[in-house]
Predict the 3D structure of the following.
Amino acid sequence: MTTRKPNVVLILNDDMGYSDIGCYGGEIETPNLDRLATGGLRFSQFYNTARCSPSRASLLTGLHPHQTGVGILTYDSGPEGYAGNLNQRCVTIPQALKTNGYSTYMSGKWHVASSLTEPTDTWPLQRGFDEFFGTIIGAGSFYDPNTLTRGNHNVEHEAKAEGFFYTDAISDQAVAYIDKHLRETPDVPFFSYVAYTAPHWPLHAHDEDIARYKGRFDTGWDALREARLDRLVASGLLREHWKLSQRDPTQPPWSAAEADAQFRAWTLRCMEVYAAQIDRMDQGIGRIVAALDRAGRLDDTLIVFLSDNGACAEDIPEGVTVDELVNKLMIAKSHTRSGEPVHFGNDTQRMPGPEDTYQSYGTAWANLSNTPFRLYKHWIHEGGISTPLIVHWPAGIGEAGAIRHVPGYLPDIMATILDVTGTRYPETWDGRPVEPLEGSSLAPAFGRDGIERPPMFWEHEGNAAVRVGKWKLVKNYPRPWELYDMEADRTELHDLAAAEPERVAAMALQYQQWAARCGVIPRGKIVALMQSQGVTRAFWEKPQA
Ligand SMILES: [Ca+2]
């Protein structure tokens, strides 16, 4: 057992479902993540915050996103709304760790700043990172990403290099930071935050990675959902008495969908590309782990892997124009690096993957990705917020390959990192008071399961939940509260709200008190504020599933 402070590598990915990776029941080949799971712990009930920016704000600060100013995305909704920027009442993980002697590095997606092109006090270097390479915006081409930044400087020209691919660039930069650090300052502990954009749309991947998945999904989403649940139960992650949610009611059975040969070819290709995006990320994680291993530092490095929200059912371009995607939202470029036009939209005549496409895999495959749960990114039902959580730290975790069923959520990550590194959470920062840490350390669960935890709360775009023990009260805005017994029914199939009105009232009151304390702004008010500023409607008004 080492006595030095552990290094920490925090790996986040983007819009991936609960059951996509191999060690969570999926068909996608993730041998490197599987190896971390085999040598560490998997958590079966870990939760994110349903959307890119709020999840990152919560992860980085140990607070609820509303407390940080990033209640929805990174748009400023005015003095009565969310600033869309990390405010000055929070402290980030790297800021806290630096007070304890850590060096801090980030490669990947930031997405908690409203300024995309000019450095501000909410950019990574101003929020505790010694080094940063990545994107400020929340999505974009994997071949030619907007807002590619090194330090405080735009380096989009770096993507013009032969063979550039953002997932690889994130991995390579993370490896380079680790190699340099361990070579030059091996006795200084480090924190590395690796924030992949895979498998967020657009569906971009290498041909050789896509090819390995040819045929892998040909049995279709219905059979694959059943097979995933069988594997999740067999592995011990989920319980046998939790029944598979029905196929999304807006989607056809596979037998009907595949009758159209063109659609069949296109939609299978979509899932193959999605799988290839995750596969490529896993290859990069393998290189990061290898960098630690060859320096003899794998055992005393805490590695954490999770996704920022559940799989995404958004179609491209859902109600937005290409002009908005390119010029207003800045999440796409109109032409490839060689000057060919990019074709936007889920056009079944055009196969996704190359640089001149910009597509998403759609609701039916997102439904598979979130097996066995209901709903998607944006929602607080289990499909929206359930994520794999892998924790690998041989020097600090006695068991290898075990599963933990204790529930947890994003604010717990900062609490855990501060706990295991012996870092104090500050009461003030730069002379200003900061909000008290909201999370609970997961470190006690490193040793055993069955830990009690305080209530957990969520809100995103009016969708909301509170979880107290086995009870989850959850709302699909604007519908009424639903109540589920998560021990009996984790897939949320039997709403007990009508049978338990007193419990509903008590939990709803807990929720209201939390929402008031943490500055949750009602969805109706936010939508009005955003529309008054001309912000596109599409990413707010997702049709109710
Ligand atoms: Ca996301």
Q: What stands out?
A: Residues 14-15, 52, 200, 308-309 surround calcium ion (CB under 6 Å).
